[in-house]
Structures are given as structure tokens and as C-alpha cells.
């Protein structure tokens, strides 16, 4: 769970992680597919080829240095000099060869986190000493190292010429207004001249901190279709210290009641049978805008049971903490079902919405090698909005009827999704990438970079997943990772009083 945009230092990484987001959804089982024996990979260089086409000479990069590029060679040198053991690589490989490349990476001691054969994408954690060998693999075309890039904080330049502040926007605000620069970009006039060119038929992906699934301006497109069509958490379940991923390795046999070692109480499953169990701790959000309190009840100590059927991938979350899953809706991944759960209950007498929407998602057969354990296991993700930025971006891109009036984003008919949607579907919030996360603040980065092992994670102050999902303890955690005071009302609450646009 992260919160990548505090400190505004993470954006540059997002391009690389977009591919991760895409593979997560469309190829969620790819990790399993590459787990078996693959084609042998000859770790030799392809002979340089010069292809002459219409007078143009193309010389493919063939050396490891070429594939890394000068900048990444420098990053690698720095990692070596710093004594770094492993680095995360994003590799472009020949399409159809991710399986054999993944095997070759594993043979070099690498941990493969994600592959997508369709686009020739591989993400892996690789020992520093093996990076050059991996880059030299004949089917590898290009390699990037994970990197932190500091970006300037955007802000107004020059002197304001307006003498008086404009009134806040509302239902009566025109689509040409001082709050959304759609007039300045020519968008308002263009859409007036071309009424159908308003984003209809287009789906976009928003790789950011999550999009508020309850926000009124993000519910429907201007043509009446569902606006947010998918939600993909792009972080690595193990390597990115994202504890919204829950390791589902605790088996329970429900009759339908069951108990869990080291977990208090008697739980009740929806039906008798075998399930996997874990808990989600709200305290892991302490470093981001939810401020450690996802159910908005004033404390940061709530833990919510998560039940998972490993065969069907059905998921239940005990959002009301009554230790009973039979009163909780069966949930499926948002892109498949549109299912949205909520932590907390709204008090209708207040303008702030005292609850937070969440989605679920699962990732099958994740290698436990980073924990030093054999085999694979499934993870379940609780998808939460980390801060307002993702909704801010989604609103600018595709918001429709903001404040219930005529104010639109750039393309009000546009839907967004980080994956290729089915015909007729639309928009998607995504979580920050793992690495984006780790770059969000110096503290978060150091936590992430030093906590690759389960043992190390247990010793940190963050919520610990550890190989056993039930031994993870939530402590006061990520509060030290926050560089910005969280505002409860800003958390992901579609409130009438919510400022728009939210603070960037
Ligand atoms: Ca709470
Ligand atoms: Ca509580
Ligand atoms: Ca319940
Ligand atoms: Ca309320």
C-alpha cells in the first residue's frame, strides 16, 4: 500500500510499472505458467544483424551494455559500489520467450515477479552480480534498473493577476470555468464543434494512487456507461512491501465455524469447507491519507478477516469485524464483477463520508523464493485508495458532471482501465507500483530497500506479512513513512465538501 506521490518523486517509474499493471490483470496466472521447465536459453550473444530495409540500416543492440544503456550501467555501478545485493530489473524480451528468459533469470538466482508474453515483458529481482549476464541473454532486448527520480513539485509560476479569489465550484459551474483548464487547452470549444469526440469508445489506464470508486463524477460516462471498469494493483506481492497483499497460506477447515492458531475468536465461514485465511490491518495505511483508519472510527487498530477459496478464488472480507463471513458479500476482482466493499459506515448527518470503498484481487502461484521458502502460494489484495491524487487525475481526464452540474473533465465519455477491457467497458484505478511506492519518501524507500527478507520485515515497524499470514503483526507502522499529515476527510471520501481539484 503506498502512496507513491507524496514528495512527488515517483512519477518517472510509472511507465515501467504500467506494464506490470497490464500483466496483472490480463495475465494473472502467468507466473504459474513460467514456473515449470522452459526452453533452454543459450546465454550467448546473437550475432549482430544489419537489416537493410528501404535504405535504412538497423543494428540491434547486442551487448549487455547496449541493452542496459549508459544510464543504467551507471546505476548498476552505483549499486555495486553501495554493496547492494539485488536490484529490480524491467526487461523487454522477444515476444513469446518470457518463459525461457524467466528460467534463465532463475538460474542466475533471480526472482521473477511478473511476465507478460504478449508484450515481451519481464520484471525480476536479480543479484547485482548477475545483471550483466541477464542483460546478455540473447532474447533480452533492453533492460532498465529500478530507480528513484526526484521530481520538482509543480506549482504556480509568476504573479496572480486575479484580484479576488473565485468562488468555489458547484452544480451551477459552467463547463468553461476557472477550475479545470479545459478551456485553455481548447477542449471545451472542440467538444462543442465535435460533440461526439468526447472520449466515447476510448478506455484509458490511470496508474496512480487509486481512484475513488464512490465519487459521483466517476460513476457514469456522458453516454451512460459505467466509467471505472477495472482495478489492478501493480505492486509485487512480496518485494514491494505492499501489505495490502495478503499471503493466503493459512488453511482452515470450516464446519462452518473455525478457529485459527494465534488468532482470537471463533470464526464462521459462509459454508462448511476448506478455505485460506488472513487478516488485513488498517494500520498499514498510516503513511498515507487514510491515516491508518480505513473504517473511519477514530482508531488505527482494526483488523479485518479475509477468507479465500483457493479453488474458486472467491473472497470474503469481514468488514464489520463480527468474525462472521456469512454476512459479508462474496467478492470477486473488480474488473470481473464490479464488486466494491466498504470499510466503515457513513453517518448521513455529516457531509463527510465515513467509509472507504475497497476492491479485491488475487494473484495465483506467486513464488515464495524471496521469503527463502520453496514453492508458490496465492495472495489476495485489498485495493484501497491511498490518496486523492488518482481521483484528481481521473477527474481531469474523464470526470463527468462534477458537482452534479455541467463541469466535465477533458473527455467525459471516456472510460479508463489499466487493462484491455471487454467491449463496452471503461476506466481503471491502479495502485502505485511497488517501486513507485518505495520512492515516495526517503523513509519509505529505505524501508523497502532493506526489507527483502521475511525476517527483516518482521523486525521493522511496518505491518509484517511474513510467510505466515496469521503471524503478521500490525504495529504503529508506516506512520514514520509519512511526509505529509493525512487528512481524514480527504481519504477517499466522496464528500460534498471535498475540495476539487484535490491538492496535488
Ligand atoms: Ca479504525
Ligand atoms: Ca476500531
Ligand atoms: Ca462479517
Ligand atoms: Ca457522512
Name the average pLDDT. 74
* First-to-last CA distance: 19 Å
Summed up, the domain count is 2
Kindly report the spatial arrangement of strands forming the biggest sheet.
Answer: 4-5-3-6
Structural class: alpha+beta
* Distinct small molecules: calcium ion
Number of H/I helices: 11
SSE order: HHEEHEHEEHEHEEEEEEEEHEEEHEEHHH
User: Tell me about the biggest sheet?
Assistant: 4 strands, antiparallel
Envelope shape: globular
Assembly context of the chains: single chain
**Measured on Cα atoms, how large is the radius of gyration?**
23 Å
Uncertain parts:
1-56, 418-504
Strand portion: 15-25%
Provide structural commentary:
The chain is of the alpha+beta class. It is 18% helix and 20% strand. The protein is globular. The longest helix is centred in the N-terminal third of the chain and has 18 residues, at 64-81. It has helices at 14-26, 30-33, 64-81, 98-107, 131-136, 187-193, 334-337, 389-398, 434-438, 442-450, 454-459; strands at 51-53, 56-58, 86-93, 111-116, 121-127, 140-145, 203-207, 245-247, 250-254, 257-260, 263-268, 273-281, 303-308, 315-317, 341-343, 356-367, 376-384, 415-416, 428-430. The protein folds into two domains: 6-145, no CATH class; 245-490, no CATH class. It has a four-stranded antiparallel beta sheet with strand order 4-5-3-6, sandwiched between helices. Strands 8-17-16-15 form a four-stranded antiparallel beta sheet, with no helix packed on it. It has a four-stranded antiparallel beta sheet with strand order 9-12-13-14, with no helix packed on it. It is built from eleven helices and 19 strands. It binds calcium ion (4 copies). Residues 318, 320, 322, 324-325, 327-328 line the site of one calcium ion (CA). Residues 282, 293, 295, 297, 299-300, 302 line the site of one calcium ion (CA).
